[in-house]
Amino acid sequence: MHTPTFFISSTIYDLRDLRSSLKFYLEEQGFKVLASEFNDFQKPLDRHSYEACLDAIREADYFILLIGARVGGWYDETSQISITQREYREAYQLHQAGKLKLLNFVRSEVWQAKEDRRELAKFLESIELEDGVRSSIANHKSKNASNADVLMKFINEVGRNKETSLATKGTGAPPTGNWIHVFSGFRDIVDVLNAQAFATAPIEDIVAKRLLRRELRDVLRQCLMKVKDKAYSPLYWIDLFHQTNPLTLEGRDNELTSLQVDSWDKISSVAMHLLGNRQLHLIVLPQVLAKPTFLEFDIASNSFRETDVQNALVRLQNEVSRFNTSNSSENLSIIFAHTPVRRSPSQRTIELETVKLAVLLHLLDRWSNIVTLCSSVLRYLDGDTFIVPDLRPDSPVQGMQEMLDAETPTESEIDSYLNSYS
């Protein structure tokens, strides 16, 4: 899953606290934030810091421009182009190519100063003054604009005033990306982000997916087997046992089941990983399933419909519940009753109680399905296309699942019942 990336562009000295707050807020929503003053910003030693920032902009999905009272350092002092202005121009080119979205903000005091100076300039044009005096008055320095002329030209550039004027006269197309949002504080910026940047991905869903990803990784951490510094799924050994030692409908009523000792020792060694009454606790998953995070809206029925991911999560919740119920000392006792020390070294087969073996295999199947479902959903959350996984059936007895399915009403049969109910 691609993580939306934000680049924050502004003078740093006077906007440091605001930049820090934005970075924290966005990262809490699960986004990646590029801000050059922080240690997690890539600083290649073979690149000038200015060029490194321009490179970083090309990796972003959103460009947040914050214009305050200061111009900041120069990128090209001769041409009076600030570093922030150069970053904006790079971002605007990417915006025109459809590769970046612009979110432009101007501090309210600076915006008001711009409006005041525009009115002042009109007044000065109406009276007789030498041009040098008129320019000096119009561009005088103030606490809201350290370099008024450069700041006002920059704001006009961001607003694409020239292109807009030409477009209204029939020359050229109207510019895009020229919205300027005036802000007084942090909340004003967050309101714009919520309305614009997060419109296609509600923050609640983003946060829910992030927390779910963490919980599923925790579940996987508890369920994978670690052997010689490497993690393994139990699926291979469980599938292999079912293939070589199938429990069948014909043999399900037999009191005892005969197994090869080697086969039993392998599967019982795998089952040993479940000792200690290991329980899996889900907190986030039930909350996610109570929301439409993984549902899709169907315009034809004017309702939400379930997706494969939603169904997989429902199945996962069910598998965890059954795993917790089945993972008991009583159900694992068959392992201790048939350890190598309890039999002759020359013994090649072993007789196990069929019911107890079936109960153990049922537990192992639940364990296997939990690992498989967690793995599939996590790959989806990390950006892969979701593929419905193959799972172990509810019953370890071959052919039993088909019988259970045949005895369980289908969706259409439920609909038929409800339509005839009175």
Blueprint (SSEs and pairs):
Elements: E1 5-9, H1 16-28, E2 32-34, H2 49-57, E3 62-67, E4 74-76, E5 81-82, H3 83-96, E6 101-107, H4 108-125, H5 131-138, H6 148-158, H7 161-168, E7 180-183, H8 186-195, H9 203-223, E8 225-227, E9 230-232, H10 235-244, E10 247-248, E11 256-260, H11 261-271, H12 284-289, E12 295-298, E13 303-306, H13 308-326, H14 329-337, E14 349-353, H15 354-381, E15 397-398, H16 400-407, H17 411-420
Parallel strand pairs: 1-2, 1-3, 3-6, 6-7, 10-15
Antiparallel strand pairs: 4-5, 8-9, 11-14, 12-13
Main sheet specs: 5 strands, parallel
Instruction: Work out the helix count.
Output: 17
User: Spans with pLDDT under 50 lasting ≥5 residues?
Assistant: none
Backbone structural class:
alpha/beta
Summarize the structure.
With 422 residues, this protein is α/β, with parallel strands linked by helices. The protein contains 17 helices and 15 strands.
Explain this structure to me?
The protein is α/β, with parallel strands linked by helices. It folds into two domains: 191 residues, 3-Layer(aba) Sandwich (Rossmann fold), CATH 3.40.50; 218 residues, no CATH class. The chain is built from 17 helices and 15 strands. The chain has a five-stranded parallel sheet, with helices on both faces. Strands 4-5 form a two-stranded antiparallel sheet. The longest helix has 28 residues.
